[in-house]
Amino acid sequence: MKVLAAVKRVVDYNVNVRVKADQSGVDIGNVKMSMNPFDEIAVEAAVRLKEQGAAADVVAVSCGTASSQETLRTALAIGADRGVLVQTDVALQPLAVAKLLRAVVQQEQPALVILGKQAIDDDACQTGQMLAALLGWPQATNASAIEVDGAVARVTREVDGGLEVLALTLPAIVTADLRLNEPRYVTLPNIMKAKKKPMDVLTPEALGVDPGSRLETLRVEEPAARAPGVKVADVAALIDKLKNEAKVI
Ligand code: AMP
Fold first, then answer.
1. What top-level branch of life does the organism fall under (predicted)?
2. Ligand 1 centroid to residue 127 C-alpha, Å
3. Fewest Cβ atoms nearer than 10 Å: which of 16, 76, 137, 207?
């Protein structure tokens, strides 16, 4: 069985992002970029399926600029066998990514595609669902456990008040939640090995996909600045402020 893991290059989660002066978006010039954290979990899940003998081949796929090759190398260092970059300088929205991934799925014919539940830059939480709809495949979102048993994937999801277990007939789409696993530490020998693993570079044109936008961003704003905190002398002063200034008690 082949497993595809989708990985997105995003601004590292430790970076304090700044909005561009013209409010057209977030400034990503000279900012540390990393693999989307939920995608590290997706790759780790795919590699664990291979280690358990449930998967034979793990392919990591990314859509974006040439620098996404670096993100794919990280996926290869975690343990993916091969990388596929769909290279474009167009700013991609979830529907465009889903269409590109569908084209890659049609070429690669995986039994399972694992994506992150959300990209931490756009917080869209859409790509996996759109890909499932475009392919007409079953999907399980926000997976906290995945088991593959023959032609069925059993996926556990944390829902209000408990755990839901779904049985999906393969091929299927799964999106990874935080508790699915803790991705392994990438070691130097594995980084070196990853440099020799194969990477294919495709283009949207070659896949017959128009990656253009369907949505227009009107503006991006910084959140309103918060008023600085104050220290009060004692409990009586605190109660007085809560009652008379904040008017919350
Ligand atoms: P989103 O719908 O943008 O929140 O992204 C959900 C998931 O879709 C991510 O965690 C990735 O697994 C996948 N994804 C989104 N954008 C890309 C991309 N440009 N290349 C590869 N995978 C992506």
1. Bacteria
2. 6
3. 16
Q: How far does the centroid of ligand 1 lie from the alpha carbon of residue 93, in Å?
A: 9
* Under 8 Å between Cβ of 124 and 15: no
Mean pLDDT, rounded, of the chain:
96
122 lines ligand 1 (CB under 6 A): yes
Enumerate the β-bridge partners of residue 5.
Answer: 60, 114
Residue 171 has a pLDDT of 98
Would the CB of 115 count as within 6 Å of ligand 1?
Answer: yes
**What is the three-class DSSP state of 139?**
strand
Give the residue-averaged pLDDT of 132-152: 97
Give me the pLDDT at residue 226, please. Answer: 87
| 137-141 contacts at long range (C-beta below 8 A, 24 or more positions apart) | 137/171, 137/172, 137/173, 138/168, 138/169, 138/172, 138/173, 139/168, 139/172, 139/173, 139/174, 139/175, 140/166, 140/168, 140/172, 140/173, 140/174, 140/175, 141/117, 141/174, 141/175
Within 10 angstroms of residue 32's Cβ, the number of other Cβ atoms is 10
Distances (CA, A) of 48 to 145, 156, 210: 11, 16, 34
pLDDT for position 68:
98
Residue 128 Cα: closest atom of ligand 1: 8
Determine the average pLDDT of the residues in 54-74: 98
Whether the CB of 116 sits within 6 Å of ligand 1: yes
CA of 145 to the centre of ligand 1 (A): 20
Q: Collapse the DSSP code of 227 into the 3-class scheme (helix H, G, I; strand E, B; otherwise coil) and give the result.
A: coil
